[in-house]
Structures are given as structure tokens and as C-alpha cells.
Write a structure and sequence with these properties.
The complex is a heterotrimer. Chain B is mostly beta strands. The termini of chain B are far apart. Chain C has 2 domains: 93 residues, Immunoglobulins (Immunoglobulin-like), CATH 2.60.40; 98 residues, Immunoglobulins (Immunoglobulin-like), CATH 2.60.40. Classes of the chains: A mainly alpha, B mainly beta, C mainly beta. At the A-B interface, α1 and α3 of A face α1 and β4 of B. Chain A: GO terms for molecular function: cytokine activity.
Chain lengths: 151, 204, 213
């Protein structure tokens, strides 16, 4: 499917990521007891990111998940671990495309979006690493739902 | 004492139509049933998770000498796979695939297509190739090859209505399979032509 | 918070039941309690600190509470919770899992209207509307919520028993060159690719093509 992130046109297959997440959503979210905090959606909502900034913010978020989230999400459940591995590897190939597109189109993050991404990192650093990683993984549908609006 | 198990030999990957199998030669131990365990390592595990390995979903362990790793390879990145023999507490060394395997290299076969004419209606039946597949159908009225029409079919239902045909005219159809996840298509199926009612029905 | 000592068994199976984004909290009565149990309900927006009480669902004896209004922003996700009271004692608060209205709703089949001539039938499909607070409010079709929405249409020739399927993106379909004086039955389904949401097939709408003049 073709996604329009600002100047970027990227063909991404998110179906398998969505299916993989749906398969483990209940399990992962049950490991996150903190209802009062969100990594991605509060205080700033992704839905307020301006269109031109979407390419850069999406690339940042994919890097955030690859570098900070997946590696701290190992569980005792081999089925869940396998799904996380599939999602992580799918993120790698999607990030590669986003990175290429970002370079070709020189997508830069506006000030507001940079601030938003800093807030996401602050939300993440505000929790211990395993809780932060598990919460971030449990919010994958927030990222996917937001990306779908860019189709 | 524990048996010294040799690592499985001639391991290879067979991948057709997005179904991926790891195969190897059996490790023979007289009078015993040897089992095998398969593990996978994607680019993420290699570059971001200290080279860790993930046990396969189907073969941990198995007595077969082939393992369906389709569900385990759910991303278009380079994977390495390995297998070892197990007998009781004995474990053979791991045998690891030579190079990498990326599912983008899967071989795609043309879809199995059946074209029907029902009165003035052009109908098709497509064999299911799995959830990763959608189909591109090209169809045209014979003699008007420059006016080819296209339809993308995402789900295979029994009899799909393609179009209505002019009386007595002959229409031709061909189809190719497309896998969005790897952005590749098969070659086209052989063309099939049928004639609409109102003329001699020629169904090939 | 001044809560009583809560020894009452808990409400069970507390969950959101959502159809076309009409989001209703449902639960089962605590085990072994007969009549007389009352409940109160609260909900929270995921990521925001506080629980919010639902006054219309305070001291109710039914086992559901419509939270559609409170959960209508489908860019947010929600939790809800229920507490039971009986004879001066109470249960714990029992929470739902995290509810995402966009992916966790079910979609009704489309409305199907069919008309015919002697040799054709015309089908018009209407996607269900997103739930709205008041009838006079502006309607939002689920087509706007799920841009990738498509229709699968089944047409059955009652005489030959042959069934054809059509896969269409727009909401009208004309099937020409049919047999006069023949009954055709039409049913349709909504198919959303991401997130994966399929409605059931609508009930069949049968119509006969007019007899040959």
C-alpha cells in the first residue's frame, strides 16, 4: 500500500505487522498496568503532527522502536517472542524504505514535531526500561492507526 | 554414555509461493528416533539483539527432516536458519544455512485460473494461493487487444463476476498472482477465451 | 477513598461491546448474587490520569452502560470499570482491557436496495453510519472512518442456483443481461483491509426480473 508521509511516497506492507500485533495485543497490554500514562498519545497526540513532518516523525518512531523498544520486550512466552521478532524484522525493512525516502526528499522535522518526539522519549525515559518498552509495544496500534491515515 | 550426534547435512531452503521450508538429511542412529530443532535469526536479531536465535514455531523439536518456517519468516529481511539433531540429552552441533534467505526470492507460479461464460457473463474461478496473495486479472475482447481491462482481486471467492460480454463475442482472460509484502508478481497464466451467448459457445 | 470493606464477589466478564462504534460496556452479575445488586461505572481515557464517573450508570441494576458518547473520539483508547453493591457491602472495581474503538468495533452489513428491469438488476449499497449522540447530529458514514472500505456482493440465480461474487469499491452495481422473469437474491458484505474488519453478509434481498415483453 502507498503511504503519503509529507513529500514521501512509500510502499509499505503493514498488514503483517498489524496481524502480528493483533495476535499479541491482549497479552502485551495486560503486562502494562499503568493506565494513566501513554508513550505516544499524551500529552501530545500523533494525530496533531503536521503532514509535512510525517515522514521524519514516522522514521524517528520506527528507529525508536528498533533501537529502544523491541529488545526489552522478551517474554516467557515463545509465541509472543516470535511475533515480536517478526514485527521487529518488519520494522527494519520498513525503516529502510522510510530512511531512503527521507533522504531523497530531504524530509526534516519541524520544530513542533521535534518537540513532540522529544516528549515521546521523555515519556519513555520516565518509566523503568522494561515497563516503558512493554507500554510502547502495547501502543503499536496507536502508531499503526495514525499511519493508516496517511494512506 | 551420551551418543555423539553429527550435525545434520545438506541443509537447504525451498521457497515457493511464499511457503518456505528448511530441509536436511537425516542423522541415522540405529534403533533410535532422532529429533531435530530449528531456529531462525532475522536481521533484527543479528544487528540489534546480540545475534540471538528464535526457536521455530513448528519444529522445536520434530522427527521430520523438513520444517515449515513460513509463519516464522514474516518479514522481508535476510534470515539465517539452523538445525541440530537431538537424541535424549545428546545434542549435535548446529548446522547453519550457508548464506541468508530473504522471502523476496520466493518463486512465484502463475495462478490456476478457470474462465467461464454464463450467458453474457464473463466469470472466473481462481485457486487460493494463501493470505499473502492477490490477483491481477487482464481481460479483453478478442480482436481488441489494445483495449485490455484490468481487475485486482484481493480475496478468492468461488465464482467471481468479471464483466458482461457482448452477444456472440469472444473474450480472453489471463491472471498473475501478486504478493504485496514483497512487491512481486508471478508470470501470467495461459490465456483462456470463452464466447458469449448469442454465438457458438467455444470454452477452452 | 472511604470505600466500604468490599467482600462482595466481583462483576464478571467486564468488556466493551461495540457495533458501528456504538460502545456499550457490558458485564455479568457477581457469582451467586441474586436480585438487588446495584452497580456504578467509571471510565478513563488511556494515558490521562483520572477516572470519570458516569452519573447515568450510578446505582443501576442493569448489567450494561452505554459509553458511546464518552468514547466517541476514536483517536483515543479507553478503559472502563464496574463496581457492585449489595446489602451494604461491595465488590472491587473490575476493569476492561484497553478498548480501541477503531479496531475493536464490529461493523454491520451494508444496507442493500435492489431494483430490476426485465434484463437487469440494480444494487445500491449503503455503509452503516457511525453511532451518533442525537439523531439530528450530522451523520458520519463508516466509509469516512475506514477509507479502504470495499464491498463483496453475492448474486444468486434462484433458478439455476448459480452464485456469482462481485468485489466493488463504489456502492452501486448494475448486473445486465439477466434472464427475464427470474428471481435473483442479493446479499453484501463490507470488507476493510486495515485494520482487518469484515461485516457479516447482509440478509438476502430477492427480486425478480420483469417478464419478457
Amino acid at each position: 500500500k502507498l503511504f503519503h508521509f509529507g513529500a514521501c511516497r512509500v510502499s509499505l506492507s503493514m498488514t503483517e505487522i498489524r496481524a502480528g500485533f493483533t495476535a499479541i495485543k491482549a497479552n502485551i497490554q495486560s503486562r502494562d498496568p499503568v493506565r494513566t500514562l501513554s508513550i505516544l498519545s499524551h500529552p501530545h497526540s500523533l494525530h496533531k503532527v503536521k503532514s509535512p513532518d510525517r515522514c521524519c516523525v514516522t522514521h524517528h518512531l520506527f528507529t525508536f522502536y528498533v533501537d529502544k523498544v523491541f529488545k526489552h520486550c522478551k517474554t516467557e512466552d515463545s509465541f509472543v517472542n516470535r511475533k515480536i521478532s517478526s514485527i521487529a524484522n518488519s520494522f527494519l525493512s520498513a525503516r529502510r524504505k522510510l530512511g531512503q525516502c527521507r533522504e531523497q526528499n530531504n524530509c526534516v522535522c519541524g520544530e513542533e514535531s521535534t518537540e513532540k518526539f522529544k516528549q515521546i522519549l521523555a515519556n519513555y525515559e520516565g518509566l523503568n526500561v522494561t515497563s516503558a518498552a512493554m507500554k510502547s509495544l502495547g501502543e503499536l496500534d496507536i502508531l499503526l492507526d495514525w499511519m493508516e491515515k496517511s494512506r | 554414555g551420551d551418543v555423539l550426534l553429527p550435525a545434520p547435512q545438506s541443509i537447504s531452503i525451498l521457497s515457493t509461493n511464499m511457503k518456505h521450508f528448511l530441509t536436511w538429511s537425516p542423522v541415522i542412529v540405529q534403533g533410535a528416533t532422532v529429533r531435530y530443532s530449528v531456529e531462525l535469526q532475522g536481521e533484527y536479531e543479528r544487528d540489534h539483539a546480540n545475534g540471538s536465535w528464535i526457536p521455530s514455531s513448528e519444529c522445536a523439536p520434530t522427527t521430520a527432516t523438513a520444517c515449515n518456517v513460513t509463519d516464522d519468516i514474516a518479514a522481508s529481511v535476510a534470515y539465517r536458519l539452523r538445525v541440530r539433531a537431538e537424541l535424549g540429552a545428546a545434542r549435535s552441533p548446529w548446522a547453519t544455512t550457508e548464506g541468508f534467505f530473504n522471502r523476496v526470492t520466493t518463486s512465484l507460479t502463475p495462478p490456476v485460473l478457470r474462465v467461464l461464460a454464463d450467458g453474457h457473463h464473463l466469470l472466473v474461478e481462481l485457486a487460493d494461493m494463501g493470505p499473502a496473495f492477490q490477483f491481477q486479472l487482464l481481460y479483453w475482447r478478442k480482436g481488441q487487444e489494445n483495449r485490455v481491462q484490468q481487475k485486482v482481486v484481493r480475496e478468492v471467492s468461488s465464482v467471481l463476476h468479471l464483466d458482461t460480454m457482448e452477444a456472440g463475442a469472444e473474450y480472453c482472460v489471463k491472471a498473475q498472482a501478486h504478493v504485496e509484502a514483497i512487491n512481486r508478481s508471478s508470470s501470467f497464466s495461459p490465456t483462456q477465451c470463452v464466447r458469449a451467448q448469442g454465438g457458438t459457445s467455444l470454452w477452452l | 477513598s472511604g470505600e466500604l470493606y468490599c467482600s462482595l464477589p466481583n462483576p464478571r466478564n467486564v468488556h466493551f461491546e461495540s457495533i458501528n462504534m456504538r460502545n456499550v460496556l457490558r458485564w455479568s452479575a457477581p457469582e451467586g448474587t441474586g436480585d438487588g445488586v446495584l452497580y456504578k461505572v467509571k471510565y478513563a481515557v488511556y494515558g490521562i490520569g483520572k477516572w470519570i464517573r458516569k452519573p447515568e450508570c450510578r446505582n443501576i441494576n442493569r448489567t450494561w452502560c452505554d459509553l458511546s458518547s464518552e468514547t466517541s473520539d476514536y483517536e483515543e483508547q479507553y478503559y472502563a470499570s464496574v463496581k457492585a453493591f449489595l446489602n451494604g457491602t461491595c465488590s472491587d472495581w473490575m476493569e476492561t482491557t484497553r478498548f480501541n474503538p477503531l479496531t475493536d468495533t464490529k461493523i454491520d452489513p451494508p444496507m442493500v436496495s435492489v431494483s430490476s428491469t426485465d434484463k437487469s438488476i440494480s444494487i445500491i449499497l449503503t455503509a452503516p453510519e457511525k453511532w451518533k449522540r442525537r439523531p439530528e447530529e450530522e451523520s458520519i458514514s463508516l466509509l469516512q472512518v475506514y477509507p479502504g472500505l470495499q464491498y463483496n456482493v453475492s448474486v444468486l440465480n434462484k433458478k439455476t442456483k448459480k452464485r456469482w461474487f462481485f468485489s466493488i469499491s463504489n456502492n452501486t452495481l448494475v448486473v445486465p443481461w439477466l434472464e427475464p422473469g427470474t428471481a435473483y437474491c442479493v446479499s453484501a458484505q463490507i470488507h476493510v483491509t486495515t485494520p482487518v474488519l469484515d461485516s457479516g453478509f447482509s440478509k438476502e434481498h430477492c427480486i425478480a426480473t420483469l417478464k419478457d415483453k
